[in-house]
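We examine the record.
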Amino acid sequence: MPGVATESRKALEDLQVLWVASEGGMEADLVTRAGVALQSIPAAGVHGVGWRALPGNLARLARGLLASLRILGQFRPDVLFFTGGYLAVPMAVAARLRRLKGERSRILLFVPDIEPGLALKTLARFADWIAVSVEKSKEYLPRGIPIHVTGYPTRPELKGWDKTSAREALNLAPDLPVLLVFGGSSGARSINRALFAALPELLPEMQVLHISGRLDWSEAEAVQTQMSQQMPADILKRYRAYPYLHEEMAAALASADLALSRAGASCLGEFPLFGLPAILVPYPYAWRYQLINAQYLQERGAAVIIADNQLPTELVGAVRRLMHDDRKLANMTAAMRSLARPQAAQQIAGLIVSLATSGRGAV
């Protein structure tokens, strides 16, 4: 959500912003790149972690509560903006405790996934306002709290690309279809391995832009070495693999004709922004948040779903069917683009500023 912080500061120049992250969290790099001050607190989940991990996680939450009280005492925000996850729970409890002492930090909660998780459902009880990515999220939230449908906020640097300039930037051929494959900054092992097996069948027909994630990067390098001994160089060069992309991610999204990815909340904002149709593979080892996101896009004709355990047998066929069906792909592109809300970050920033200006102006 660094884009929300950026837009908030544009709307209110003297707004002070502090980002609170979990210790060792992966968002630190994006936040510091956006020029936002950052502090970390201990945090851990307690839902579904098992009895062995529960005592340690409860202890981390207790330390997180103490750290949250210290941060709130020092920073004294007028607005707390929560985007979910167990990290927000100790901060929300700390804010409630400080309210008992007469301080009132207003709380804006953003629900990124269509269905809120347990932490977000808990946090909803603390919120003054709630912002959601899509209208359907209202079905999962308590009544009596104002809910604003803003869309999912995307980073400012994602805007301004078209397919031609994006392919030039990534040195991709302009006349061959592009499949973009990724599973997040850590990667998605089942997607990666299904793709590795499918590359000999896909590369003769298309270019594959693969963001493997850092955990599987060594395997991606090994696959490239192996394929270099098995296929012509002009075919192999159609496979472009990266461990992760930062600024270039916008070009990757803009260059693609089709995406293959997990169904995290960002697919509700980034894919519509680029009108990028998708094959979605919901993460199977957690609650159903990704499945609900994927079903929402599939029901609107913007995506198709493949179950994780069906990837090895269905991946090649699904990709080929879509890449060879221009009409279907065009319809999916139009359906995905119709869901775009490019002003989401500005709208959420407006809510933050409205709350902040009733106080002094810190978030």
